[in-house]
Amino acid sequence: MVMRRFMAASLLVVALGGAGAPSSSGWRDLNHNGRLDRYEDIRAPIDTRVDDLLKQMTLAEKAGMLLHGTLPTPGSAIGFAGKTYDADATAKLLNDRHISSFISRLVVAPSDLAAQNNAVQKLAEASRLGIPATISTDPRHHFQATLGASTTGGGFSLWPDTLGFAALGDTETVRRFGDIARREYRAVGIHMALSPQADLATEPRWPRFAATFGSDPAEVSRLAGAYVDGFQHGRAGVQPDGVATVVKHWVGYGAEPEGFDGHNYYGRNAPLTDASFARHIRAFDDSLAAHSAGVMPTYVIVHGPRIAGQPIEPVAAGFNKQMLTGLLRGEKGYRGLIVSDWSITNDCPQACMAPDAANPQTPAAIGTPWGMETADKTTRFAKGLNAGIDQFGGANDPAPILDAVAKGLVSEKRIDDSVRRVLRLKFEQGLFDNPYVDEAAAARIVGNPQAQAQADAVQRTSQVLLRNDGATLPVAPGKRIWLHNVDAAAARAAGLTVVEDPAQADIALVRTATPFETLHPHHFFGARQHEGRLDFRADDKDVQAIARASAHVPTIVAVEMDRPAILTAIEPMAKAMLVTFGASDAAVLDVVTGRAVAKGHMPFSLPRSMADVEAQSPDLPDDGPAPAYPRGAGIVLKASAQ
Question: Is 51 a catalytic residue?
């Protein structure tokens, strides 16, 4: 194993090249002392290298390792603005606070992102011990973009949201996606994916539904495991050329009443039973079996189940020793990194708990210390560490950790245990030997035509055909078509003639999406999340467009589902009904015209009414009254029908 690691890391050095690569003597003098230390020696076993470096670290340097900060951009400490990192602010985080793990939220061209990440590594190399930076990201390869949870752009290949993979149910497709995403991330200097979501999607109104693999625990487990396999480049743990995954959110996150999300004060509680809790845990099994490098605990306070016969303490999972040390590390035998979700040690002031129009919640007022709201920061850090947290997401001040040690609330041995896990992962990924990337190669690798062609194919096949009355699909070339929310150029490229009046058309195509409400407009996340209703109503503009079209011609409706839509109001007006989970207009039109076949099946059930939604249990999958369409629904047309 030592020789395999040595050879793999050596190959990675050759492949990446770039500034700061090892000297002709074969090593990097990271602590600038002019001699080869054991931690700098690529030939030494990883445990030996970790031990050597740990002995050289001060307590302050160790404390900094337990923070997973944010790479700041000019004018934004949380990195949401600008085209470059703030070099001065980043240097202070590296040198003064000894932080070496960061999320990047920068969205720029691949070569520019590679250059910016190389610049961060150059700053890290100049620090006292030269500890390289681990750079993480929220998902970047999907259609859905929610500030603080996911993003799009930057040239990465564009795939369906994970619900699309769930609609196909094919582990090899997920693994292939992960393998391509792995190469793209590493090409720009990203080492950690804050994904996948192995959350079980049980509450239909939940805003995080689209990033899950659906409502069946066994399927979620299988597909999340394949995701880990693809990103980490195998099931034996992250490889030197792999991207570390952080599977989330352990556990019960998808069970929140009314779908209110745990980022928000009003969504901090999730009641479950012993039986439903077991289902939510089951969804994580294969990602843990695939040795996901990291696990992220949920924000929410789980109420109801018992662990080892004892009631769960009413604190969020990031502070909950029963859920982390007892259940995850003990019962499940997990040995990787536990990274808290963001801002759990921050205060939640009035603008966090009950913002209003005059005092809306801003990033400065984001805090998620659920169950620990009245504690001070030192106590929160100590509680999290003693529960089992290794790194605190979104934290950038090590002072409370040092204070906790000084007060005897946390032992230095406990700190060392977490530092070892952080360092080991950096060594496993080859970052100490060469963290730099080839900026020109990044432009060639990220979003290359071959990768995008595979992504486009999945955009097509992952669609679900729910209805096809009178063999409405496929539509023959040359037909006159009326469009709503569809690019006319894409329809012409598909061989159709676009008309401006449905009365002049042969067929109509309307794209729409699951309805939603903004129920909490003054909360930072609530203002950005899709909450509330799932049903189409007569005064919705898209419903009016469907009614206008269906009065004249057979109408095809394609519904983008980030949450389970109630189709009752629009179904009588549609001759064909497609469901998409992230698909371009071209991908939809290829299915409409028979150039491609929709092969997906619903990864969750569709309710008949909001009354049915309200009657179901938020912690149980696909329960409640009989659905309009059950999980697994979907028509696959024969090739001869195209």
Answer: no
